[in-house]
Amino acid sequence: MKLTLRVWRQKNADADGAMSTYEVDNISSDMSFLEMLDTLNEELIVQGEDPVAFDHDCREGICGACSLVINGDAHGPERTTTCQLHMRSFKDGDTIDIEPWRAAAFPVVKDLVVDRSAFDRIIQSGGYISAPTGSAPDAHATPVPKPDADSAFEHAECIGCGACVAACPNGSAMLFTSAKVNHLNVLPQGAPERETRVLDMVAQMDEEGFGGCTLTGECASACPKGIPLPSISAMNKEWLRATRKAGR
């Protein structure tokens, strides 16, 4: 395939950015989207130009690092991570716009790379459980009802890629935060910090400058791991419960 790529180029966090146009040829439909970008960068390096900076790591749809807006959609036209998106999703002669996540809380570092450390700080504020010292407990020492285990696993699938924020018209991080809160709050191991967890993580989310949630549903539609929209409602109930208990 021969493609026209319109790529966001930005030298650093303080520089102004703009779209640059490149032509790539001999792209196989079996290539992943990141392999296609690798091909572009190889050509740029041969020409003595600066390669396009983009995040990637596992390239197996696990780590969430490969975060791009492709033709206006977070991770592209398929509901998957960018690294698992293949060029068969496009046609010969297509023009593809490639941009970084767009959110105030995700400042651009260079080209397609953004700083998502705001997510790390949300996790640090409450995404943990009390762990007594000593030998590890037996696996059956704390029974977990099957529905609770299933719910915890469903929310634990969140890989923190940020697609929910990029897709939300308000730049909200409610789906990410709710996944991390609900993952632990439904388990008995998470009970000691249940109230403080939701209060602290929501407060940190607000402090990071993410937008407010209006339940448009774009976040859940873009999530490559299928975190459901009712996760937000469940967290809101937890927050109201904790707020009332704390007398706030």
Which keywords apply here?
single chain, alpha+beta, two-stranded antiparallel sheet, 8 helices, 7 strands
Quaternary state of the chains: single chain
How large a portion of the residues is in β-strands, by DSSP E?
5-15%
The tally of strands reads: 7
Strand order in space, largest sheet: 2-1-5-3-4
Overall geometry comes to elongated
Task: Compute the number of helices.
Answer: 8
Helix content: 25-40%
Question: Which regions have little confidence, pLDDT < 50, spanning 5+ residues?
Answer: none
Q: Cα distance, first to last residue?
A: 59 Å
N-to-C SSE series? EEHEEEEEHHHHHHH
Q: Structural class of the helix and strand makeup?
A: alpha+beta
**Major sheet: size, sense and barrel closure?**
5 strands, mixed
What Rg do the Cα atoms give? 20 Å
Mean pLDDT: 95
Descriptive account of the structure:
It is a single chain. The chain has 248 residues and is α+β, with helices and mostly antiparallel strands. The protein has helices spanning 33-46, 117-126, 146-156, 163-167, 174-185, 194-207, 218-222, 230-246; strands spanning 3-9, 18-24, 69-70, 73-74, 95-99, 108-110, 113-114. The protein has a five-stranded mixed beta sheet with strand order 2-1-5-3-4. The protein has a two-stranded antiparallel sheet with strand order 6-7. A hairpin with an 8-residue loop joins strand 1 (3-9) and strand 2. Helix 3 packs antiparallel against helix 5 (174-185). The radius of gyration is 20 Å and the shape is elongated. The N and C termini lie far apart (59 Å). The mean pLDDT is 95.
